[in-house]
Each structure stands twice: as structure tokens, then as C-alpha cells.
Amino acid sequence: MFSGAQISLYPMSDDFVAIILGAIKALEPYRANFRIETDDISTLLVGPPEQLFPAMRDLFVAAAASGKHCVLSATVSRGCPGEPDDPICTPISASIADSPLEERIRQARESVDGAALSGQAVAAQFSLYPLGAGHHMDEIYGCIDFLKSSGVFDRSKNFCTKLRGDAGPVFATLSEAFLRFGAPQGHVALDMTVSANSPSAV
Amino acid sequence: MFSGAQISLYPMSDDFVAIILGAIKALEPYRANFRIETDDISTLLVGPPEQLFPAMRDLFVAAAASGKHCVLSATVSRGCPGEPDDPICTPISASIADSPLEERIRQARESVDGAALSGQAVAAQFSLYPLGAGHHMDEIYGCIDFLKSSGVFDRSKNFCTKLRGDAGPVFATLSEAFLRFGAPQGHVALDMTVSANSPSAV
């Protein structure tokens, strides 16, 4: 199953080029597992679905350590029809979306509870799109149950859900929402925005 | 039908607050038609679907006039189930998605051909998500036909389509993709990124 993300990093600083180039070094430990392509709008990561959010977390925490207001924006996708079935995208662990819904909600909560703290406070919002057939509203409601008990739920907004907390559990929550809900082999897309050091944070 | 967008503006500059506050003045002509709410991550625009992209275009062109590298990122939605049916969202013109597909492709091309040039060069990428029942692959393929003949098509990328050209026809193309394809009363979401003055633009 093809999985990957188009990611962009926006440091609100005259030094944005240096901050981006510095932060990209945080992707080194992941580089062997991913195909990475960059153009003037975004960087494509193609690889194992469970490593997408840890890679984005490390990239973002490195940029936010500059102290500047930074935002990461990404479009994440798995099972997109028409994309080649790339061996690099093989999940490292067995499929984690094929047990009963209640069990997956419990597993998702446990993963977030066990996420290491990064020391970086962030706010995030995201929209989850289960596409095509084979999805059920039960999956969406189950995911919402999980989000509300994740410990980083902030509020529901129009078109998206807002999270707030340490980057560790926030990125873990995004990853769990993406991996554990929706049909295991179905097409799921997620669009997300993560912000740190905003002068207008409340 | 509820329609609106969560939009964020990212000037890669130490002066980002001043650039954002200056650019927001470009929304004044639209203010009477929209409900607008801002928090630390995004600004919600709720209002008539045909005015969403002109409002985003004027906001972005105003920010890009700073000469700084600026990005606008937005999640745009119409017909989202669970959202209230708000009179402010009533389309100003009659529904434009209920004529035959060939006719809509022709109308979309005409709209883009007639778009006024802004003098601002931009690159953009977007993903279109027709959600729920009532959508057909014919609609997606029809939209792709339109995009390829829009005059601003750049290339297909993983998970998204990239456009390049003057902000006028680029935002007009995004608007036509959003308004004219997918079921007229169906749920359609679009996530988009528009960039100007990038030092890595090719």
C-alpha cells in the first residue's frame, strides 16, 4: 500500500532558509527508509506509514527550537488508488487497523500515553478524509472517541479538530488517527497544520 | 449548504505580523458577506462558495506584494454533513454544478480564460476530496480534463496537482475545480497551498 506525505515547513523569520536546512538534518535517521523529493512547494516523503509522523515530529521540533514562530503543513495519504504499490511503503509492524474498533481505540490511547515528551509545546489542527468505499461512520465516531480522550484534544472547529500539548503526544495522536481508523486497505487522507511559538497563541 | 475555509498566511519574514495585518485589509470588501473568526492557527471564512477563492486571492496577492516569500494554506469545504445550514452560505448565483459534465468543463475553462491578471506569479498545489456517496469517478476525470487545459497546469504530483501562473487564473482554476465538480449538494473538501517569491522556485 502506497503511503507518504507532502510536507512543508514555514519559519516566520528572515532566516527561514537556514532554519529549514538545519531542521532537515533531523530527517537523517529516517532517510534510509524513505524516498524523499523536494520542489519549491513541498517535500515528498514516501515510506512506511508508522514512520511518517515520527519523522515530521523530529523535523518540526528541530525547526521550533529556533524559537521562531514555525508551522509545518502536510498532506498525508495511504492507500491512494492509482499510486504504485511501492515495497518501501510496507508497514514495519503488522496491520494495526484490523482488530475490533473498541480494541483499536484502547491501543491508540495506550500509544499516546506512552509517547515521549519533547519539551516543545505545539498547537495543531487536522482533517481526516476516509475516501471511497469500505469506510463506515462507526470508524469516524470511534476516532472522535479516541481524540477526545487523547489528553491533547483542544476543540472541534469547522472542518477540522484542534489539538494542543507537547509535540510528542500531539504527533502520536495524529499518527494513531491516521493509522488505526478507516478501512485497513482503504484510501485515507489527512491534512494537518502544526504551529509553535505563535505570538497569538492563547 | 454550509461552505467556508480555514485559511492561514505564512510570510517567511521577521515582519510577519505586520505583513499579515496589512494583507487582511484586502478582505474588507468581502467582510459583509462572510462570518470571520480567527485563532492562533487559522482564520475561518464562512460564506458564499463563489467568493471564497476571490477573497483568498486578494489576501494572498496583498501579502506577496511585500516581496517576501509568502505561503497561503487553506482547507476549503462545502456541504459538510453536521455543519448548520447557514443562510450566509447561499450561493449568489444559481447552482453551477448541475449541468452535464462536458458543459461544466467548457464553462470552467471560460471562467479561467476570463480571469483578470494580478501581476503576481504564484505556484500552487491542491488535493480535491469528494466525500460520501453521490460522487463518481467521471467527475474526477472531468476535473482533471479541465485542469490540464486550464493554461496553469504544471504537473501531477503524488497526492496532489500542481499549478503555476498568474494568481488571477490560478485562483480561478482552484475555484472552478471546487465549485463545478462533484455532486452539487455533496460534500467536497479541497486542501491547497499557494506560494510566491520562493527562493527555490524553478
Brief synopsis:
In chain A, 32% of the residues lie in helices and 29% in strands.
Describe what you observe in this structure.
- With 202 residues, chain A is an alpha+beta fold.
- The first copy, chain A, has one domain (3-196): Alpha-Beta Plaits.
- Chain A has helices at 16-24, 49-64, 101-113, 137-148, 167-180, and strands at residues 3-11, 35-38, 43-46, 70-78, 121-131, 153-157, 160-166, 187-196.
- The first copy, chain A, has an eight-stranded antiparallel beta sheet.
- In chain A, strand 2 (35-38) and strand 3 (43-46) form a beta hairpin.
- Chain A is globular.
- The relative contact order of chain A is 0.20.
- Chain A binds chain B through residues 2, 4-6, 8, 10-14, 16-17, 39-42, 44, 46, 69, 71, 73, 75, 77, 80, 83, 123-125, 127, 129, 131, 157-160, 162, 189, 191, 193, 195, 198-202, and chain B through 2, 4-6, 8, 10-14, 16-17, 39-42, 44, 46, 69, 71, 73, 75, 77, 80, 83, 123-125, 127, 129, 131, 157-160, 162, 189, 191, 193, 195, 198-202.
